[in-house]
Structures are given as C-alpha cells and as structure tokens.
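Re: that chain you flagged

S.,

Sorry for the slow reply, it's been a week of failed gels. I finally had a moment to sit down with the sequence you sent. For the record, here it is as I used it:
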Amino acid sequence: MEDLSIRILFGRLMCDTGQWNQSQHFFQYLLNNSISYNEDLAKIEYSLGGVLQCKGEWNEARKYYEHAFERLINIRPIRIKDLADILFNLGEILYEEGKYDEALDYYAEAFTIRKQYYYVTKANRSCLSNHQKMYWLQFNKIRLNGYVPIANSLCSFGKIFLRQIKCDEALIFHQRALTILEEYYQFPHIDIALNLEYLVQVLVEQKNYNEAFNFLQQAMSFYKKYYPNDHVKIAASLYGIGIVYFGQGKYDKALSVCEQVLKIFQKHYFSGHDMIVNVLKTIGCMQKGKENYNKALDLYRLALTMQENYYPSYYADIANTLNYIFDVLICQSKYNEALYYCQRALEMQESYYPSGNASIALSLSNIGVILRKQGKYTEAIDCFRRALTTVEKYTSFDHYSIAGFMNNIGSTLCYQAKYNEALDYHRRALEIQEKYCSSCQQEIANTLNYIGNMFIEQKNYDETLKYC
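Prediction finished late last night. Pasting the structure tokens below so you have them in one place:
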C-alpha cells in the first residue's frame, strides 16, 4: 500500500527488521486508538496482516487482510491498488498452505488489476484466461510505481510453475521479474535478492547447483548491505546454500550450514514457526542421507509435534512430514509402523484436498510399497494404480512420477508372474522416460534392468541382452 503515515511506516520498519512482536503490539495499539491518531483503519489492518504473515500465523493474518478488504471495497472511490495488494497477500498465504490452485486464482486476480492499472500496453494485448498457459510478458511500458508490484506478480506465477515442475516456464517469469527489478532499483536491493532466491529454487530443481550457488552468494551480499549477519534473510540464503550442498552430496557441509541456520531461526522466530519446522525436516533428510536413521526420526518427530501444536489444520504439510517418517522406518524395516504413518498421511491429504490432489499419490504409493513387502500384491497394485491415476489426472506433466508408478506396477506384477503385463508397463515407462526425462539416466537404466529381468523370467535371453 502507498501513502502510509509516519506511524504505520514506523510499525512496518519494525516488522522489516524482524521485531515482529513489537510491530504487532504497535499496530494493535494504533488499531485500538485509530480515531485519536486519525489513522486509516484498512492500512493498519493490512499492516497487522503482514506482521502475522511474517510470524507464520496465517489464519490470523488472513482475518486482518479480509477485514481490510471488506473495508476498502465499500469506500468510494475504490482504492484498486490496495485491493490488489490484499488479494496478492491472500494468495501468498494459500501458497504457504500448499493450496496452489486457490493461490493461483488470487495471484491472477491481483495481476489482472495491476496489469490494468500499471501498464501502458499496445492494443489487443491481454492476460490469457487459462491459468495453465503462459501469461503474456511483453509489455510496451510499465508505470514507474508499478515495477515492484508487477515483478512480485510475475514471481508468484513463477512459484506456481515450479510447483507444477514446469521449470522452463518458472525461469522465464523469474528472469523477467529480475530484469524489471534491476531496471527499477539500479543498485543492490533486498527485493532483487529475494528474486534471486526464487531463481535458485528453480535451478536446484534442475540440479544446476553451481549456478544456484552463485546466485545465493549474490543474494547474501545484497542482504548484508542492509541486515546484520544473524538476520533471518541472511539465514535464508545460508539455508539455500545448505540445500545446494545437500544436492551435491556434501552432507557434512550441508549439515553444518543448516544447523547454523536453525540457531538463527530459533533466535528470531517463535518455537514452532514454519521455517524452523522446514529446517528440522531438511536436517532430518541429511541425517537420513548419512544413514543416521534414529537422529533423522527424532528430527522428523520434533517437526511433527511442532506442526500438530501450531499448525494443526495444515494437514497437507503434516502429511508430508508423516511420509518423511515413513521413509526412515522403511530403511529400518519397521513395516507395520511405516504403514501406520503413510495411512495417516493419506487420511489427512484426502481431508485437506476433498477434490483430489497430486500429493495424494505419494501416500498411496508408500502404502503400496508396504503391501508389496507384506506379499499383498493385488492390494499393492491397486494402490500403485490409484497413485498413477491421481498423477495423470492432476499433474499430467509430471512424467518422472508417472514413469515411476508404472514401474512400481510392473515390478509388482512380476511377483505374480504376470510377465507380459509387467513388460507392458515397463516399456511404457521407458518410452516416457526417454521422451521426457532423458537426463534421468539412472532411472532409465533401472527401467532397462526391469525389462531385462522380465525376459530372463521368460527365458528369452536374446531379448535380455538388448536391455542389459
């Protein structure tokens, strides 16, 4: 929001420097005494929502944003820019809650308003109505006061594309946003640093770790111009570096960095903050990678307890943690206990996503893995087929997972000596991998081995040699 009073700017400055509790108390005082200070109630409520969002108190943040929105919608003339900012932030909360389709609706609505207000465009240029298509990026001119909000909107679409595993599209949006911000600021700024971190997330997904590392160092150098070394923004960049080390298999380095990040987050955030939960789970993954299974379990269970205490309604993320615990228990051959956790995860996901969601496929697949180990092949195949159907319905572009579930079905059919049917699934998986996942050489090699083994079982050794 623009045209903020000195008092509101002061409260937001406290928020920006990590003094969230002080900022929250200050804005609540202003809200209770708004008449005395002649303050804009909507701007106070919006600012309170922002503080609570930073603290990870999403439900409370949403309430204040909605109060501000209702207040503004009844004011004439309508403050259209302010409404767009609220819609955008509501989208951000939904994104944090894992409700990406709903988040996209809010992002798109905010962008439509911003596009109309901030762009001087050529005729016949418009935003595509289909959310799954590329939004147009070529504009004739952006008004000066629209650079930052437009860049933020482009980043929001980039984040959604990354969740859809559309890395090329995500890069386009983040790079376009970066260009806009660099043109606007002309010097190192924290908004540019944040955009660099979004780019890093895409590069990590693409396993482009060297370039990701360079961007993180650049982002950190920007943050250090504004913040002390133990600020959460700098810690977030350090966290990214830890993720890069982990992706490179440098577990000791990754662990050292992430433990440092955890200490900083614990200093600034409340004990159950989402960022602390995320770092605990990441450190758990690193301990699992080092085969320190008991340490990994302790970390996952600590994260789970925090989520159940502070985010009890956020079933999607709790389910993810339950599946992390499943992964460790499988490594320890504790199959009955593992089954309990992935069944809990499935129940939560089906409750959180009543219309269905691709993330449900992971829990179904995990249940299938346990059932197969227990010799319950028919039930296992049913779970794998449900997982495959779920991914094909909700994320048909996720070729990696589709091929993986096909291989799971094929390998389970092999246990039932249904070799021809199994061979069909493995061949379909291979075709998908070679067409869409050519860089996944290990996975392609595994599929070739599955096919070779099918021919061995059929004593067709000449065909076996073609695949081994």
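What I noticed first: The CA atoms of residues 84 and 110 lie 5 Å apart.

Talk soon,
D.
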